[in-house]
């Protein structure tokens, strides 16, 4: 079979999924399977679906052995590993806090509400060992009265997984893009653009670059934000404090060998001040790279992006 161009898109996880590349195999017959994979993934990991595997787990009692779906086990284990590695700046155990701030449904379902009421909520600090893992049976034991939210890692994890699936099917020089969580691979240079952080200018890129391999993710405190009691809040919670982070960074783009890690790193960068972000990255994730945007328009680029970017084009 001759090498042919391939492009596919679908809606999932409240965003547009795009898959493209070249290959010597007919992937079109797999399109429905890919859509079904994302649908099943949401049925496992979405806290917005009351009967998802994650929602069922969140409703379970503490100090009880709970056998969970294998994919959910893998993602929660990965999320917990990142929580420990980042000293709980990244904290997937803040589902109740997000609900208290009004984030109870998908962002597209409530983003146009004029004002959201905050519910009474007292954050008592993070638990150093919030969950016990029982790998032989894909089991867990919750060690606190919390709810898990995988919004900080699930999309990146799914991009990595789908990329591995289509690569095994024969897709070369490929890209998987889930609303800005991106994984690219192959010999072909791809032009990637980073959107302007302001929603009014989101049709413009602040920078474009060429890259062949790696994961990219962008976090922004301006777009996914809403009014609570007359105050603007956003979805990136400081894992140590349980409240929306306060920083002069309005957007961070992270580069890593996988998109799940880039997803996590981008969010943590938004918790740091502009001058602190790149030094923090260099210390804790020296292999990763970043582009951070300050609220006054300043842009900083870490030297380490050279590991992933072949050239910056604007």
From TrEMBL:
Record field: catalytic activity: L-threonyl-[protein] + FAD = FMN-L-threonyl-[protein] + AMP + H(+)
Cofactor(s) in the UniProt record: Mg(2+); Mn(2+)
Cofactor note: Magnesium. Can also use manganese.
EC number annotated for this UniProt entry: 2.7.1.180
InterPro entries tied to this protein: ApbE (IPR024932), ApbE-like_sf (IPR003374)
Record keywords: FAD, Flavoprotein, Lipoprotein, Magnesium, Metal-binding, Transferase
GO molecular-function terms, A-Z: metal ion binding; transferase activity
Binding positions (Mg(2+)): 152, 263
Protein family: Belongs to the ApbE family.
Identification of the protein by name: FAD:protein FMN transferase
Species assigned in the record: Schinkia azotoformans LMG 9581
Lineage: Bacteria, Bacillati, Bacillota, Bacilli, Bacillales
């Amino acid at each position: 079979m001759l090498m042919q161009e391939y492009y596919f898109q679908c809606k999932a996880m409240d965003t547009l999924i795009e898959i493209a590349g070249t290959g010597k195999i007919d992937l079109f017959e797999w399109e429905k399977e890919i859509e079904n994979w994302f649908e099943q993934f949401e049925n496992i990991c979405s806290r917005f679906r009351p009967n998802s595997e994650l929602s069922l787990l969140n409703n379970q009692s503490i100090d009880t052995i709970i056998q969970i779906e294998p994919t959910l086990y893998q993602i929660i284990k990965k999320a917990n590993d990142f929580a420990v590695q980042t000293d709980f700046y990244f904290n997937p155990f803040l589902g109740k806090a997000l609900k208290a701030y009004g984030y109870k449904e998908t962002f597209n379902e409530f983003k146009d509400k004029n004002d959201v009421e905050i519910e009474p909520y007292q954050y008592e600090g993070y638990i150093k060992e919030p969950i016990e893992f029982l790998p032989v049976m894909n089991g867990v034991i919750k060690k606190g009265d919390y709810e898990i939210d995988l919004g900080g890692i699930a999309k990146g994890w799914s991009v990595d997984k789908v990329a591995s699936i289509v690569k095994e099917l024969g897709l070369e020089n490929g890209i998987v893009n889930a609303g800005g969580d991106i994984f690219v691979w192959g010999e072909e240079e791809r032009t990637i653009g980073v959107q302007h952080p302001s929603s009014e200018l989101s049709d413009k890129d602040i920078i474009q670059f060429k890259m062949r391999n790696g994961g990219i993710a962008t976090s922004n405190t301006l777009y996914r934000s809403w009014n609570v009691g007359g105050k603007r809040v956003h979805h990136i919670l400081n894992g140590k404090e349980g409240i929306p982070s306060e920083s002069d960074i309005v957007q961070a783009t992270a580069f890593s060998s996988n998109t799940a890690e880039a997803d996590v790193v981008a969010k943590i960068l938004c918790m740091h001040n502009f001058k602190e972000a790149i030094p923090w990255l260099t210390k804790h994730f020296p292999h990763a790279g970043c582009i951070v945007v300050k609220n006054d328009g300043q842009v900083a680029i870490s030297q380490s992006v050279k590991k992933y970017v072949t050239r910056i084009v604007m």
